[in-house]
Write a structure and sequence with these properties.
Chain B: This is Large ribosomal subunit protein uL3m. Chain B: Belongs to the universal ribosomal protein uL3 family. The complex is a heterotrimer. Chain A is an alpha+beta fold. Helix content of chain A is 41%, strand content 15%. Chain A has 6 helices and 5 strands. In chain A, strands 4-3-2-1-5 form a 5-stranded antiparallel sheet, with no helix packed on it. Chain C starts with a strand and ends in a 6-residue tail after the last helix. The chains are: A alpha+beta, B alpha+beta, C alpha+beta.
């Protein structure tokens, strides 16, 4: 019934006849509105920048761009659920290359909560399916754990070190010596100024000699030192490369959500996200204030 | 002989005790099994199965004229809404019994996403949006005239409700199609479906049906058209394993292999799995549990991801026929009646489902019993647990 | 025959790993024949046949279950008690549930593996 009403109201607005009187009215309002446009334009620029940032901070709010999976109602409901989860638990801003600590309630050992520290080597999925892969070396044993961001068994997600790396995925750390993915599980949170740009770690990883899990020479990696392979490997990689794809506008369009739609999505949830950010900041201040009392 | 002669007296002549047939006449000859030669068509289309979409020509309408048409459509809508408001819509519901059959609804499959249960388990759910369903017409068993030709007794004693969904611009449809809705006064709908109901479950035309027709925790059957995959081989169509890629195998990597034996059964048995057209047929998935209902957007979350059709496909949702999953508690019969003053939550959850606005604190084991089982502290927190 | 890494401190396992002759799986005690987390396997190690339990796998796991860089095994003797006295790598916490389910009265007590584990992930 609600659908009918909404559709009905829409049709009414579109079908209203524009009489001469109303035309005159609109003309008058246009002139007064013109002065406001300049002011609005500046505001729009600011909000546009904020929206563009959201794309990087909250990438999982963008839906799967495949047209056969799109549905506006489903996407809206999914976003609502994500927001309501985010209002309960602080899911911080993080990128591939950040060091995270995830505390989960462990079903197999109910007495204790389980905490895992590691470097984020991959972020994938969108909507409620969003997940990230953490890697660490514990007792000389490489361990990877996949966490779902909206899993209710997660109690806390902390960003111990906020930084970016040169690549979008760090799966090559599996083929790198262990020291590159070894992090102290008792590491303390490294301070990061609010609003400061996220530092980029330009470390170049030296991979172990072949055999590898993947053919890294074909992946166009930036965060890796010279692989030291014979010429034929690079030749083959050159043959298989598809450098023209970045000019394929149609392909890019199909693979991404258009900018206008992105802005629409983030404009819809902007106020909620801002509220969440404000409460997070408040809590942070609270924590810093509480520290000295603990020492005493 | 006497019968024949009496029938064809005009066209025959008896001369010298022999029968002569006049060349210009025809003779009635008895043919055995004649009913098979020109049988009555077994399948007759239901009355609502007319041509739906009108061929849209460029009619060179002026701006004013096309606006006038829109205005007429708008007026019709207002009129039909008024009529339906004035009409006495069913007010009292009947107590439900297990043998009674309710109507189903037309819904749209809008996607798949996970939900979590209170024990931390993740489940996949499909979202079905119940469209603006309205009852168009009731067909009594005699009137409906089941599609299969009646031989002997009538098996189906249930009448059916014709239900339409998704209001559309009536100028897009043919006159025949619009006439279906004329009697009821409902604006023509894009989708039609019929649902068999028991005599007590008849709804007056124009009654809206919402997602509240169903209850959380009950099971439903969902019927839809599967994705059309075209002509496919046995590996894709029936999940055969195919044959080895090497070891001397030539040209038979994805073939089915043998389809029958020799000897007495030297033929292909009916129903043998072979290549052919896959998909684009109706399929019913039974016994799907409803985990959550959104009353604002009329969305049902049902378990599983195997619901036929692609995203945005139209499906029909029924109460389940599986005897063990039929509801135990009474359900609104013949349908949930909307009351304007009633206040209900936007989201209704099954008791097992985790609400995203809540938080699972920790896992606690019961040490009283020797067997361990999990109890969850379920606490609502205002903002971030701390 | 997949090669495994012995992660307990049993003499046999330590020597096998030091010599670069890791144990090889010759049988998996389940119905699929594919070794999963917590499955018992029969391994060939230094000319002997030993049973062992898989306590860490390379294969992709579900969320929250760790994936390791090597396939780890803990060796058992004939009675089902672990050969070593300590496990020097982390053990997934899922094994607490899996091994408990596998253990039944008058059968092999797999939970002994949990008691010799040093860390859980």
């Amino acid at each position: 019934m609600i659908n009918i009403i909404s559709k009905y109201s829409l049709s009414l607005s579109t079908l209203t006849r524009t009489t001469n009187a109303s035309k005159l009215l609109t003309n008058r309002t246009k002139t007064t509105a013109a002065s406001n446009i300049v002011k609005k334009h500046k505001q729009d620029d600011n909000s546009k920048n904020a929206l563009a940032e959201y794309r990087l901070i909250y990438p999982e709010f963008l839906p799967d761009p495949r047209i056969d999976f799109r549905n506006s109602v489903r996407e809206k409901l999914e976003r609502m659920d994500m927001i309501s989860r985010r209002s309960q638990i602080d899911i911080p801003e993080f990128y591939v290359g950040c060091i995270l600590a995830v505390t989960t309630s462990d079903k197999h050992n109910p007495a204790k909560n389980h905490r895992f520290v590691g470097i984020c080597i991959q972020r994938s999925g969108c909507g409620l399916r969003a997940n990230f892969l953490l890697r660490n070396v514990i007792d000389n044993q490489g361990v990877e754990v996949l966490y779902e961001m909206y899993d209710p068994t997660i109690i806390r997600i902390e960003v111990l070190r906020l930084e970016k790396r040169l690549d979008d995925e760090l799966l090559y750390l599996r083929d790198a010596p262990q020291e590159y993915s070894t992090f102290d599980p008792n590491m303390e949170i490294e301070p990061h100024m609010e609003g400061a740009p996220v530092p980029i770690n330009t470390i170049k990883v030296k991979l172990k000699p072949r055999p590898w899990l993947e053919r890294w020479e074909r992946k166009n990696l930036k965060g890796v030192e010279d692989l030291g392979l014979p010429e034929r490997f690079y030749k083959r990689a050159g043959e298989l490369a598809t450098p023209w794809e970045k000019y394929d506008l149609m392909k890019q369009y199909m693979k991404t959500v258009p900018e206008e739609e992105q802005n629409q999505i983030f404009a819809e949830i902007q106020s909620e996200l801002q509220n969440i950010e404000i409460t997070r900041k408040k809590l942070k201040r609270k924590r810093t204030f509480l520290k000295p009392s603990k020492l005493a | 002989m006497t019968l024949l002669s009496s029938l064809c007296r005009n066209y025959t002549k008896f001369i010298d005790g022999r029968v002569y047939i006049l060349p210009t006449t025809c003779v009635l000859i008895q043919v055995r099994e004649s009913h098979k030669l020109n049988p009555v068509p077994r399948l007759r289309n239901p009355t609502w199965l007319t041509k739906k979409n009108r061929v849209i020509h460029d009619e060179f309408l002026t701006q004013e004229n096309s606006e006038f048409i829109k205005e007429v459509v708008r007026d019709q809508r207002i009129e039909s809404d008024k009529k339906l408001e004035e009409k006495e819509i069913l007010t009292n519901s009947i107590p439900w019994a297990r043998n009674l059959k309710r109507t189903g609804v037309i819904a749209k499959k809008i996607g798949i996403y996970p939900l979590w249960l209170k024990n931390g388990e993740k489940i996949t759910t499909t979202l079905l949006q119940v469209l603006d369903n309205q009852v168009i017409k009731y067909y009594s068993p005699e009137e409906y005239n089941p599609q299969i030709r009646r031989i002997g007794k009538i098996n189906n004693k249930k009448g059916c409700l014709l239900i339409g969904a998704e209001t559309a611009d009536p100028t897009l449809f043919t006159k025949d199609y619009c006439n279906i809705f004329k009697e009821t006064g409902v604006i023509p709908k894009k989708h039609l479906a019929r649902f068999f109901v028991s005599g007590e479950g008849i709804l007056p035309p124009g009654t809206p049906i919402s997602a509240m027709h169903f209850q959380v925790g009950n099971a439903v059957d969902v019927r839809g058209k599967t994705m059309d995959r075209g002509f496919q081989g046995v590996m894709k169509r029936h999940g055969f394993s195919g044959m080895p890629a090497s070891h001397g195998v030539t040209k038979t990597h994805r073939r089915g292999g043998n389809i029958g034996g020799g000897g007495e059964k030297a033929r292909v048995w009916p129903g043998t799995k072979m290549p052919g057209h896959m998909g684009n047929r109706y399929l019913t998935i039974r016994g799907l549990k409803i985990w959550r209902i959104n009353t604002k957007y009329n969305v049902l979350w049902v378990s599983g991801q195997g619901i036929p059709g692609e995203t945005n496909a139209i499906v029909t949702v029924y109460d389940t026929v599986l005897p063990l999953r039929r509801p135990l508690e009474p359900i609104p019969f013949p349908t949930y009646l909307m009351k304007s003053d009633e206040d209900f939550p936007e989201n209704i959850y099954d008791k097992e489902v985790h609400k995203f606005s809540f938080i699972i604190e920790e896992w606690v084991t019961d040490t009283v019993n020797s067997t361990k089982f999990l109890i969850i502290k379920y606490i609502k927190l205002t903002m971030f647990h701390n | 025959m997949s090669k495994l890494r012995v992660v307990d401190n049993s003499e046999l396992g330590k020597r096998a790993m030091a010599e670069g002759k890791p144990p090889k799986v010759i049988h998996v005690y389940n119905k699929t024949g594919i070794g999963k987390m917590g499955d018992t396997v029969l391994v060939a190690v230094k000319g002997e046949k030993k049973k062992g339990v898989l306590v860490g796998l390379k294969q992709n796991q579900k969320s929250k279950i760790p994936k390791f860089d090597s396939n780890n095994v803990v060796l058992l003797d004939e009675t089902g008690t672990p050969l070593g006295t300590r496990i020097h790598v982390p053990i997934p916490t899922v094994l607490r549930t899996i091994l408990k389910q596998k253990t039944y009265t008058k059968g092999v007590d797999y939970t002994k593996i949990l008691s010799i584990a040093s860390t859980f992930v």
